[in-house]
Amino acid sequence: MALADAGCEVEAVCPPRHPLSKIKAVRATAVYSGFSPLRSFAKAIAAANPDLIVPGDDLATRHLHHLYRRELEQGRKDGTICRVIENSFGAPESFPIVFERAAFMRLAQEEGVRAPKSAVIGSLAELRNWAAETGFPTVLKADGTSGGDGVRMVRTPEEAERAFGKLEAPPLLARAAKRALVDQDKTLVWPSLLRRRSVVSAQTYIAGHEATSTVACWKGKVLAGLHFEVINKKYAAGPATVMRLVEHAEMQMAVEKMVRRLQLSGLHGFDFMLETGTGHAYLIEINPRTTQVGHLTLGLGRDLPAALTAILSGSPVQPAAKVTDGDTVALFPQEWMRDPASAFIRSAYHDVPWQEPALVRACMQQAFKPKRFVPRKSWEQAVWSVRPPKRSSLINAELSKSQHE
Fold this sequence. Notes:
Elements (H helix, E strand, L loop, with lengths): L1 H4 L4 E5 L11 E6 L5 H12 L9 H16 L6 H10 L11 H10 L7 E4 L2 H11 L3 E5 L8 E4 L2 H12 L4 H10 L6 H5 L6 E5 L3 E11 L2 E13 L6 E6 L3 H14 L3 E10 L5 E7 L16 H10 L14 E4 L2 H5 L5 H4 L1 E3 L5 H12 L7 H10 L7 H12 L1
Parallel strand pairs: 1-2, 12-13
Antiparallel strand pairs: 3-6, 4-5, 4-6, 7-8, 7-10, 8-9, 9-12, 10-11
Helix pairs in contact: 2-3, 6-7, 14-16
């Protein structure tokens, strides 16, 4: 939606019945197949001939990296697919590093960026040696995961061994089958059938609170950036639900150094821990994709869609109107799902896409999806908790319809 507002023509690749198909800003959608993902992307690129691809999750980024490698192997380095993937991510040499947590941490330290000690853990013996050297608590992370799903903070040897076993294990066949049959998401089928184990790394624990940066960049230079402290989270290791915009020189410098070192292009996110007592920013992770705040337009230098549109079109940057003059953002539907009565829904800027009522309804229905029965009162409270200050008749009609559904 933000890219379309900035002047881009937007098309999407997504699974059937995905909320993207409900957004008027998306001109066309191509169906993503979990059984033949590279073919899905190749066909979509051929049809759209895009200038830029914006992946919405880590799996999409992995598919595009694999597609790039396949094109190279088939002698098509100068073809459309390789060109647009390089535009979208930057130097191909950086592709493996962004998914190898320990390697990324070593690179950060080489650049003089403050980062926790990290190492790949390949066995229980290596885990025990790591624990003996660094102590507890410690953090275990599975490569290729996001949103906190593959992260465990452990405080004892027993917790560490249990967490390591779960993080490296292949996806359960039952889970993969449920995803494929119910959610039409086949991405876990091959990893489950082939019994692929995840690479697990360990990081020393930094006591503090989380922060995050999202940037638009081009050939190793940051064009625009947003830096936030995390105020609320969905759960301990999960995604943020409320964030506060900050100016943090150490975060900004770390991001600029890593973007330059990896020669990144497109949209990327960086996660930090702000150390208790000192406020030092420790870089803990890179997200090689857009993150959940990338669409926020907060003025010159803080409007990522406008910065990317300008570089692609060769025109001056024309930032959109600021969505808020405040510094606190409650993300929708994340904070609403965490607590429909949250004070931040009213005190902060609540990021509800009111101009796309079908999307609002889809988000609310998704929130109730795991529950077999939902009392009418719950719907009424939910609808009123996300109401805009001045509701149009269209919004009233759409939300009333969703309430009855």
